[in-house]
Specification:
301 residues; alpha/beta; Cobalt-precorrin-4 Transmethylase, domain 1; Rossmann fold; four-stranded parallel beta sheet; flat; binds iron/sulfur cluster
Length: 301
């Protein structure tokens, strides 16, 4: 196979967002000091990274399993945040906590709490645009009072049981275009309600997520071949890898270097390695090294 002078580069915009990076640093510090800790849910949706942290002593458990922990156990809350009920469980079980909830998510929980206090008094509704059952969404629902609906598509607006006043929030990792369509559908159902102050739309998508797609488009178009590295359970990885394929059809999605195929690079002068907000940089570096090795070996044969 011929791979003339293949230049391999890593997408500088790829890798963990600051919230996930902060949670992982908290876990590493905790494990260095204690040797063992328990995370409520996966700290990041990437099997390679969770495997690395597991080897350092981090055990992932479900909220329902907290009460079974011994009293000297130390618990970590990941960047997605938790509903107040999980804090209560920890308190009643006398467990110690490192709270690595992302500050952006904490602010959103606070806003949802304030808005829901107002809507509950006036029989209004809080709407969270997001994925039902996603841990961040579950946390936000927990911080709300009164009527809270979780909706994920503009098509749901017409039939939804929406009462005014209405406060609308987005899960921080939502797609900006889909949220825009969703808000347009709300404005179409309640014309002029925004100007009367009865509909409040809060732009709560994280800037690190909304900037990611334009940066990926530029990177994908600049390279002949793109290798997109992501774990199989990452919804951000699924979405971004699909967009990457749309920007560059020579995109291949892998979870690690073992899935690379030298035939993908035939005739290419450049290969770019990118990934989701849950993909560790060390894994993208391993993939880039493996590409360099396999293509230099192939061009020598
Ligand atoms: S995507 Fe944004 S809000 Fe969500 S954890 Fe990362 S930095 Fe925080």
């Amino acid at each position: 196979m011929n791979h003339p002078r293949l230049v391999v580069s890593i997408d500088p915009a790829a890798g963990f967002c600051t919230g996930v990076r902060r949670a992982i640093r908290a876990a590493e510090t905790l494990l260095a000091n204690r040797g063992q800790a328990f995370s409520v849910g996966e700290i990041v949706h990437n099997e390679a990274e969770t495997g690395r942290l597991r080897a350092l002593g981090l055990t992932t458990l479900k909220t329902g399993e907290l009460q079974q922990l011994p009293q000297d156990a130390h618990v970590l809350f990941r960047a997605h945040g938790e509903p107040p009920s999980t804090y209560n469980t920890l308190e009643t079980s006398n467990l110690s906590l490192t709270d690595a909830t992302c500050p952006v998510v904490l602010r959103l929980q606070h806003k949802v709490g304030l808005a829901s206090a107002e809507t509950a008094e006036k029989s209004g509704t809080v709407v969270i645009f997001g994925k039902p059952g996603h841990p961040e969404v579950v946390g936000l629902q927990g911080h709300a009072r009164g009527k809270v609906l979780v909706l994920s598509h503009a098509d749901q607006i017409e039939e939804a049981d929406l009462t005014l006043p209405l406060h609308v929030f987005a899960q921080t990792t939502s797609h900006a275009g889909s949220f825009k369509q969703f808000c347009e559908a709300i404005n179409a159902r309640f014309p002029d309600a925004t100007s009367r102050g009865e509909v409040s739309i809060h732009q709560t998508i994280c800037a690190q997520v909304s900037k990611r797609e334009p940066a990926l488009e530029k990177f994908a178009r600049e390279h002949d071949v793109v290798i997109f590295v992501t774990g199989s359970r990452s919804s951000n990885g699924k979405y971004l890898s699909e967009r990457c394929t749309a920007f560059n059809p020579r995109t291949h999605v892998v979870s690690g270097p073992g899935e690379l195929d030298p035939r993908w690079f035939a005739g290419a002068a450049s290969a770019g390695v990118s990934g989701a907000t849950s993909t560790p940089v060390w894994l993208m570096e391993e993939v880039a090294s493996a590409i360099e090795k396999m293509t230099s070996e192939a061009s020598c044969t």
